[in-house]
Records
---
Amino acid sequence: MRSKAMPPTTFDLLADDDQQPARTEQIGEQSFVLRGFALPWVEQLLPVLEKILLAAPFRQMVTPGGFTLSVGLSSCGTLGWTTDRSGYRYTRIDPVSGQPWPAMPEVFSELAQAAAREAGFHHFEPDACLINRYLPGARMSLHQDKDERSYDPPIVSVSLGLPAMFLFGGFERNDKSQRVPLFHGDIVVWGGVDRLRYHGVLPLKDGYHPQLGGQRINFTFRTAG
Ligand code: SIN
Ligand code: FE2
């Protein structure tokens, strides 16, 4: 099993499939699904997540168009992503608590950096971790991540709990999307030429996960500021 101690030296973007780690799937020129990459970290992630959620509980946010997102949102890190009637943006203060967003735990940023490295993105310095909670029926429609200051750093997206069907599209909303099933512990990394690809999540199916129960949690790490 890979761990954070394993150097990424065996990973060569131009290598033949059979030379790549068995559980890395390429879904774009610079886009990868790292199957099970987060599994060795889960025991450390969950108690820290619990603390973050005490300070910044999941909340339903409203889009500028007046729709309430079905996914519950929270954040940790210097910057947290929020939306309300006046627009999408990153803030230093959690608008619900009036306090700064909880700091990004070291284990979070280490995992995100290790995953980014595995996908060929070195020196990833995330300052924002969006935490999404999907209950059955919750979905995320196709969108691009465009609120960050620079599109040079990649997106690192960690899946925990119930499985979901991730849609990985093209550069136009109507381009055909790949359907990528994501399971507990999987990480998707996309960046470089793929940084602005549309993506989304189909409505979550009912189920039960032994560690997370009837929900899916997603961490999306970005360099926002
Ligand atoms: C997102 O695009 O913010 C979330 C993606 C996911 O939940 O897998
Ligand atoms: Fe996104």
---
Amino acid sequence: MLNYKTHIAEKIAALLTGADEQEIFKLLEYPPNPEMGDLSLPCFRLSKALKRPPQAIADGLSQNLKDDIIDRTDSVSGYLNIFLSRGRFAESVITRIRNEGAKYGSQEIGKGKTVVIDYSSPNIAKPFHVAHLRSTVIGNALYQIFSFLGYKCVGINHLGDWGTQFGKLIVSYRLWGSAEEVQQGTIDELLRLYVKFHEEAEKDPALEDEARAWFVKMEQGDEEALALWRWFVEISMAEFQKIYRLLGVQFDSYAGESFYNDKMEPVIQELKQKNLLEEDEGAWLIRLDQYGMAPALMLKKDGSSLYHTRDVTAAIYRKKTYHFDKAIYVTDYAQNLHFKQWFKVVDLMGYEWAGDLEHVAFGRVSIEGMSLSTRKGNVVKLEDLLYRAINKTREIIEAKNPNMENKDEVARQVGVGAVIFNDLSGNRIKDIDFSWEDALNFEGETGPYVQFTYARTCSVIRKAGGDERISLVNHDDIDASHLQNVEAVGVLKQLILFTERVEQAMQKLEPSIVTRYLIDLAQAFNRFYHGCHILVDDPALRSARLALVECVQITLQSGLRLIGLEAPEKI
Ligand code: ARG
């Protein structure tokens, strides 16, 4: 039996004419209180479709639902409460996870389908800051989750490598910068120049016109302007790569905004042909009043393109190139209107795949109460943030476990993990205030806590004389009826939820569902670990408990990987 819930849904559907198995599966709940069973079916939700009173449905099922994994059923106020046979339940969970190993929790729902994920997408010549970190981390988790469910994923880093900001930077560089300073100071120097430009432009607005003029030069292919641009891009990219390496994140494509420079003209023509563009004082825009939105500006007066123009062009290009079934864009919610507008434009152009575009918005990030803004230079650089987390973790390790091998490596895995996990906890739409103390707390609901729990499973297995990577107990030696105490059942109930949680995370585009799940599983395991001695003398009990530890190890490892965390074996 693959999954007891599927199995029970199937059995129930067979007893109810007119009910659909999928529907039953969705309705089956895990009651919060063990007295209400291991699974519960709210029959009033079926009452309308089946044209029968809920109590009658529950009574009928209670009398007829028999199976060797069901111990008993109760019909209570319109609910059918199902109590599983402890031994059979334990066996089904343990067998399944041990057989499937690293594949446990994966599915083939996405087979033959492609998802394009646009994430991270920092702006060149500006530093990579915490909002980009959040996009990187959420996008990467979605990439892993969709892949785990059988989708082909294409990860795109839509670099902000074109636009007026380069005009500003060129002006600032020519006035206040030097080649040596940029070489030495790299991205920090670029930021200094960018901030300086804004300070000076407040006093002298003519600088803004100069910046626009330089950008127009870039668009017209002026060699001097382009050479500077290329140089700034190179410097920024080298910096971004350091961060991606630290995070362990990769992309399939780095086609940024500049990639679409020669692809926009045909799109503009198409918009004109379709009578969507309207001239307004020399600029070209698309009216969206009918849809309750401000117009989408497609071409400026000076003929230069905009963020909208590039996004529409990129979407058309991606559809042609990757034939996606879904295209996802991960940015903070400040861009909600931007995405709504241009999704509408694609729709108005008559592309039926406009409905496959989805904006995955997330909340703002502040650090210990401080908000971030690039223009004023008030940015917390992500690299500094990550190194601070690594160094703090290193201090904790030094204090707790000074003799540990490869301390640096573990400090990196745990420090970076803490930051990633923190960004993925809680619904993505919620604003986050990053707190050092909370993120690095080994006992709180944090990445280090889950990683530490994983290392604990490894340590138990090592103590039992095994190697973390190979299965310790022979399957025939496991008598799952030994896993009937409250703590063991608590772990089993969490383990079996993994598949569903991963699927929900994919459907809701919400990696925090996996993050939450990992905390729940880790907590259940720690209750088991503290409540039951695992390496007991009784060989049958020992094998059964070790098999459960292995299942937790497998599941924690997969779950951590899905959200982009590494799983060190020793902490
Ligand atoms: N570079 C943009 C920013 O930092 C994010 C780009 C998101 N992707 C997109 N296709 N618009 O705000």
